[in-house]
Structure to design on (934 residues):
C-alpha cells in the first residue's frame, strides 16, 4: 500500500501516533513518498497496521498541520511538495506543532542552542535538604496558600530584585507563577481582548505564539541600535509594549537609559503598559550594568517579570512578576480566589534558598563559569576573519555576522558540521534581517568543548567551495 | 476627617492597602460610616495616614469593586448602602475579589467548609524520601521536560484512572497541569472564543468565574434529579458542557448511566464536547459506583479531568486531564512548545508515589476516615427532627434541608453559633433554589468534634425564637 516500509513499535516509549507521524514525515523528506502520491485511507491504514483509528487520525492531523500532506475533499490525503533541507516546513506563523522534532533534539544539537542552560552546578544537596526540612516542619503548607504566592517568597523576591535589579516594590505587588508562560497567560487575560500589543521585531517567539493563540492584536515594531523605536510605538496604536531591555532577544541590545525614558513617557501618555521581560539579566559581562525599567518608572506603568528557569534550571517552574499597584485589584478579581500555580513546598524551598544566601552564592559560581566560557568562545571565534560579534554584554547568547556567505549558507554549513544554529531572519516578521547573522547560545556548551566547536565552525565557514 | 479611628500597622504582615481596605469595610459594615457619608479624598488620606497614593488607590478600588463604596463623578467616594448580615456584599456575578475575607478564614470557620480537606494523614515521610531520591538521582530532570508532563507520570495516571475510574486512554492523551484552574484555562483557550459553555445550575463557581473572566458565552442549565437536562442542553446552543457527573457540585447527585448516555449522544451530534470534572470521585460510600463518562464515550467527545488537590492536599498543585485524540493536535499547537506547569521533580515524585502503591494505600486510609466521619455526622444530624440529607453518596460534602426555617435564617443561626455555612441559593443563577437547603463539607471537620458540632447546629436551629 505504501511504497516504503512502516515499522512501528507498540512497546516503544514514543506514542504510536507519533511514530506513525514521524515515519511518514521522514518518508516525505527522504523522497520515499513523492509529491502528489496518495496516502492510504485512514481505515485501510488502521487495518494494515493494527492500530486504532485515533492513532491514524492524530498522525494525519499532525502531518496536515505541519504541511507534510494535503487533504483533497472527497478524495483523501496526498504528500505535499517538500522543499526543506532536512528541516520540517515552517507552520503558519510558527504556530503549528513542532514538538516532535524538538523533543528529539540531541545533546550535540543543543551545544549552541539559545534555550540551553548549564545545570551542572545545580545545588542538589541544599535543594533536597531544604525540601525535606520544609516537608517535615511545615504541615500548614498542605493547606490552601495565598493566591499570589507565599509571603516569605514574595518578601525574599522583593529584596532580591531590589538589590540586584533596582526594582522598587512592596512584597504585596509580587505574583509567583509556574513559569513565564503562566504569568504571560495571566497578563493577556488581565489586559483583556481589546489590548493591542507591540512586539520587538525581531523578538521573542514564545510571547508572539501566546498572543496569536489568544487571538490578540499585535504590532511588530522595528528595532534600532537602542531597541524599540518610541515614535513608531506611539504611531502603532499599541496599548501594551512587550520589551526585553536588559538583553534584547535575540539582538542582545542593552537598551540605554535615554530610550528607556522615552518608552516610559509613552506609557504615561495613556492607559498604556510596559511588560519588562528581564529573562536573563542575572548574567552581565561588560558595559554599564543598567537596572530595571521598573526601577525608573515613577508612574506605575511597568510590569516587571523574571524567571528562575534560565538562572537555575529549565525544570524549575517558578517565575515572578511585579504588578503596578493599579493593576493589583484587577489581578485579584481574576485570580485572587484560585490557588497559586506553584506548589507551596517548592515556593518555600525557594524562599529559604534566597533568604539563606544559597542563590547569591550559586549565581556567583555559575556567572563566573559563563563569563569564562564566553571569553573563551569569543577568543576562539576571533580566529575567523571578518567575523563580527554583537549583543555579547549579557545573557548567555550573542550574534555573529560573517559577510562572506549568506545566512542560509552559513546555517547549512554549520548544520553539515553537526552544529545546527538559528539565523536571525527566523525571528524577523516585518524587518529585513541584517544579512549573514546567526545566534549562538553558550548555556549548553561545556567549556572544555569551546575550542573544538569554534574550530569546527571556522572550518565549515572557511572553505570556499559552495555545495 | 473620618468619624472613626483608623489604625494601620506598617510593620504588620498584612499589606497596608489591605489593612486600609479592611478597616473601611468594617466601618461600613458596623455602621461607623453611614450610607452616603463622604470618604476623604485620596490625597487627604495619603497625607493623614502617611501612606503612598498607590496604597489608598488600591484600597479604594477594592472597596468600589466589592460594593462598599460608590464613586460620584467629580465629587468623590461615598459609603454605599450596606445590607449585609456580617458577610461582604456579593460582587457582580461573584467575580469581584473576596480574597481578603477568605484569607482570614479561621480554622473554626473552616470546620464545615466545602473546600477543606483532611491533611492529617498526608504521607510526609514517603513524600520527602521520594523527593530526595529523585533530586539526587535524576540530574536529567533539570533540563526541559515534555510539555504534556513526565512520561512516567502519564503512564501511572493512565493505569490509575483505568483501574479506579474506568477511563480508557493512552498515556499520550494525558496532560498534567498545576491545578484544575490551569487546565481549565488551557481548555478555554483551546475551544476558542466562539465556544458556548453549558454550566450546571446550581454549579461550580470557580469554572463560572474562569469563563466570565475570559469573556466566554455561558448558559446556565437547570438540573433535575439526574443531573443536567439533555433536551435543555440541546436547545441551549452550547458547544461545550461542563459536568460533574460523579458527585455534582453542589447538589451531590450521582448522574445515572441513562442520563450519561443521553448527554454523550448530544456531544456526538455535532462539534461538541463534554468536560467531565471528576473532582472528588476518590471517595464513595454508597450507591453503585459508576465509572467515568469518559469510559462510556465511544466517540472521543469527553475531556476527563481530575486533581490531587482534594484527595491529597490543597497545596499539591497537580491536576490532570485526558484529551480525546482529536483534540491533541490543537493542544500541541497551543502548548506543545512550552514547558509543563508542574516541576519535573514533583511530577516524578508523584509518578513514583502512584507506581509504588503509596497513593492506593493512602486513599484507603483517608477514605476510611472520611467514611467514619460521614457516618458519625449523619447519625448525629438524625437527632434534628425534620432534617433531610441528600447528595451524601460520595465526595466530602452533602446537603441538608430543614423546612422549619428559611435558608437565610438557618445560615444566620449557624453563623451566630460560630459555624458559618453556605446556602444552596448562593450557587443558583437561573434556577429557583430548593428552600431551606445548606451545604455541609466535612473534609475539615475532625472526627472527634463531630458530635459537638452537630449538637451546636441542633441547638441553633431548634430554638423557636426568631431574632
Amino acid at each position: 500500500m505504501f511504497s516504503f516500509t512502516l515499522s512501528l513499535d507498540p512497546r516503544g516509549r514514543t506514542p504510536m501516533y507519533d511514530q506513525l507521524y514521524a515515519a511518514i514525515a521522514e518518508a516525505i523528506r527522504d523522497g520515499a513518498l513523492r509529491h502528489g502520491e496518495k496516502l492510504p485511507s485512514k481505515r485501510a491504514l488502521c487495518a494494515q497496521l493494527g492500530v486504532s483509528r485515533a492513532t491514524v487520525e492524530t498522525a494525519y492531523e499532525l502531518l496536515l498541520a505541519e504541511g507534510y500532506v494535503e487533504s483533497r475533499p472527497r478524495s483523501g490525503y496526498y504528500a505535499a511538495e517538500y522543499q526543506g533541507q532536512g528541516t520540517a516546513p515552517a507552520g503558519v506563523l510558527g504556530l503549528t506543532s513542532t514538538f516532535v522534532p524538538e523533543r528529539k533534539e540531541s545533546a550535540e544539537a543543543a551545544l549552541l542552542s539559545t534555550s540551553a542552560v548549564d545545570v551542572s552546578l545545580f545545588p542538589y544537596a541544599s535543594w533536597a535538604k531544604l525540601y525535606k526540612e520544609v516537608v517535615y516542619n511545615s504541615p500548614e503548607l498542605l493547606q490552601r496558600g495565598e493566591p499570589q504566592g507565599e509571603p516569605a517568597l514574595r518578601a525574599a523576591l522583593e529584596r532580591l530584585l531590589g538589590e540586584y535589579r533596582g526594582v522598587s516594590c512592596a512584597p504585596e505587588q509580587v505574583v509567583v507563577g509556574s513559569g513565564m508562560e503562566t504569568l504571560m497567560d495571566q497578563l493577556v487575560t488581565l489586559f483583556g481582548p481589546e489590548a493591542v500589543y507591540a512586539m520587538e521585531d525581531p523578538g521573542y517567539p514564545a510571547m508572539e505564539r501566546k498572543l496569536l493563540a489568544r487571538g490578540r492584536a499585535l504590532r511588530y515594531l522595528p528595532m534600532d541600535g537602542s531597541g524599540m523605536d518610541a515614535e513608531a510605538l506611539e504611531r502603532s496604536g499599541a496599548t501594551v509594549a512587550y520589551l526585553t531591555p536588559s538583553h534584547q532577544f535575540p539582538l542582545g541590545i542593552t537598551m540605554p537609559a535615554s530610550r528607556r525614558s522615552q518608552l516610559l513617557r509613552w506609557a504615561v501618555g495613556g492607559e498604556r503598559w510596559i511588560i519588562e521581560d528581564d529573562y536573563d539579566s542575572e548574567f552581565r559581562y561588560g558595559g554599564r550594568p543598567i537596572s530595571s525599567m521598573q526601577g525608573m518608572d515613577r508612574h506605575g506603568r511597568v510590569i516587571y517579570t523574571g524567571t528562575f528557569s534560565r538562572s537555575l534550571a529549565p525544570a524549575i517552574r517558578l517565575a515572578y512578576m511585579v504588578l503596578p499597584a493599579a493593576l493589583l485589584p484587577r489581578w485579584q478579581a481574576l485570580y485572587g480566589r484560585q490557588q497559586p500555580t506553584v506548589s507551596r513546598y517548592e515556593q518555600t524551598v525557594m524562599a529559604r534558598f534566597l533568604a539563606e544566601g544559597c542563590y547569591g552564592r550559586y549565581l556567583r559560581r555559575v556567572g563566573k563559569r559563563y563569563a569564562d566560557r564566553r571569553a573563551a568562545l569569543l577568543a576562539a571565534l576571533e580566529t575567523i576573519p571578518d567575523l563580527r560579534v554583537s549583543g555579547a554584554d549579557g545573557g548567555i547568547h550573542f550574534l555573529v555576522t560573517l559577510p562572506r556567505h549568506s545566512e542560509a549558507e552559513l546555517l547549512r554549513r554549520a548544520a553539515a558540521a553537526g552544529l545546527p544554529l538559528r539565523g536571525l531572519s527566523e525571528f524577523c516578521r516585518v524587518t529585513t534581517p541584517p544579512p549573514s547573522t546567526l545566534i549562538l547560545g553558550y548555556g549548553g556548551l561545556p567549556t572544555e568543548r569551546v575550542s573544538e566547536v569554534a574550530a569546527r565552525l571556522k572550518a565549515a565557514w572557511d572553505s570556499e567551495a559552495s555545495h
